[in-house]
Specification:
Layout: E1 13-17, H1 21-33, E2 37-41, H2 47-54, E3 58-62, H3 70-79, E4 88-93, H4 99-105, E5 110-114, H5 118-129
Parallel strand pairs: 1-2, 1-3, 3-4, 4-5
The structure holds manganese (II) ion.
């Protein structure tokens, strides 16, 4: 997403939308440990406003949220001119057959399955935003 003038070396920012406290802590701690900046919310309905405010380089979207579904939140993000270019990676629960297909059909750019496998997860994040830009 263009739209601000951060230098290419600035730390990458990742918006995490996840309502489960343990999953949120894991995702946030791992990303911060690898030098990414994180913005967090447990509400799908907050995603567009946060993305407009913080210009994240990537959004991680839990599909099961308490207020609106993750896919509804993705639809809002992809409908909004200021957020539609930001890649969204769905975070899906292991064993939810068809969720990956639904995520991609619903506008997500990729998906990762819970429980999170760290190496795979970090490779996926790097594929979308490059390395963190901060300390490794
Ligand atoms: Mn959830």
């Amino acid at each position: 997403m263009q739209g601000d003038d951060r230098p290419p070396s600035a730390p990458k920012r990742i918006l995490i939308v996840e309502d489960n406290a343990l999953n949120m802590k894991l995702l946030r701690d791992v990303l911060q440990a690898y030098g990414y900046r994180t913005i967090t919310t447990g509400q799908g309905g907050a995603a567009v406003a946060l993305a407009c405010d913080h210009h994240p380089d990537l959004i991680l979207m839990d599909l099961q949220l308490p207020d609106i579904s993750g896919l509804d939140a993705v639809r809002q993000l992809k409908d909004h001119p200021r957020t539609r270019a930001i890649p969204v990676v769905a975070v899906t629960a292991f064993g939810m057959i068809g969720d990956e297909r639904k995520a991609l059909a619903g506008g997500c750019d990729g998906y990762v399955t819970k429980p999170i496998m760290l190496r795979e997860f970090l490779e996926l994040v790097e594929r979308f935003v490059g390395s963190a830009g901060g300390l490794r």
